[in-house]
Write a structure and sequence with these properties.
Blueprint: E1 17-22, E2 45-50, H1 53-58, H2 61-65, H3 75-83, H4 88-93, H5 105-124, H6 127-169, H7 176-197
Antiparallel strand pairs: 1-2
């Protein structure tokens, strides 16, 4: 779960008053609820603060992830739901680089070469040759098909994640300039997946 971070532009919600609880120290974490499990002081005080980067920076990560510091149904609540949790911040961090389990470029090239050669062999061989060779190379072919399916799945997932970022951000135009640089790794990753699947 992702909490709102201080670098995220707040747009029209900059300076909106929010109710928080905190211990009496000036640098104490701010909490959206007096019942937050991270609020351990028995002498917590309730106060109103202006929503800005410094407030977000002090906000308890648990409260920030679950957006409970906005009244349900308000514009701020809708914005926080879109950005935090499994929303925009999560999607911006997803599909920016290859997973540890991704096949290497060599694996993809070998699988593509094998699949192309099988198509060619199927066109040239007699039925008897095909049966004999299929029996001998069944496992190798299965592995190559699995590589291809995985690469296609990665490309599809990267595309869907990128599309979701744009869909989430659409109602909040002030986020678009901030997102521009953060989108570069996602776009690069999707393009890399596209090239791999077309091998």
């Amino acid at each position: 779960m992702y909490a709102l971070t201080p670098d995220v532009p707040l747009g029209p919600f900059e300076g909106v008053p929010v109710t928080v609880w905190s211990a009496q120290s000036k640098q104490a974490r701010l909490h959206a609820s007096s019942s937050c499990s991270f609020l351990r002081s028995a002498r917590a005080t309730r106060q109103q603060v202006r929503l800005d980067a410094s407030t977000v920076d002090r906000m308890c990560s648990q409260c920030g992830s679950y957006r409970s510091w906005a009244r349900p149904g308000t514009g701020l609540d809708i914005f926080l739901e879109a950005v935090s949790g499994l929303g925009l911040l999560y999607e911006l961090d997803s599909y920016t680089e290859a997973d540890e389990d991704s096949y290497s470029e060599d694996d993809v090239r070998r699988a593509a070469a094998l699949l192309r050669s099988k198509v060619h062999d199927h066109q040239c061989n007699t039925p008897e040759q095909e049966i004999e060779e299929d029996e001998e190379a069944e496992e190798e072919l299965s592995d190559a098909l699995n590589v291809r399916r995985t690469v296609l799945s990665e490309w599809r997932a990267a595309f869907i994640s990128l599309a979701r970022v744009h869909q989430i951000a659409e109602p909040f135009p002030w986020l678009k300039p901030w997102m521009r640089e953060r989108l570069i790794p996602k776009i690069d990753r999707m393009e890399n997946c596209r090239i791999r699947q077309s091998s």
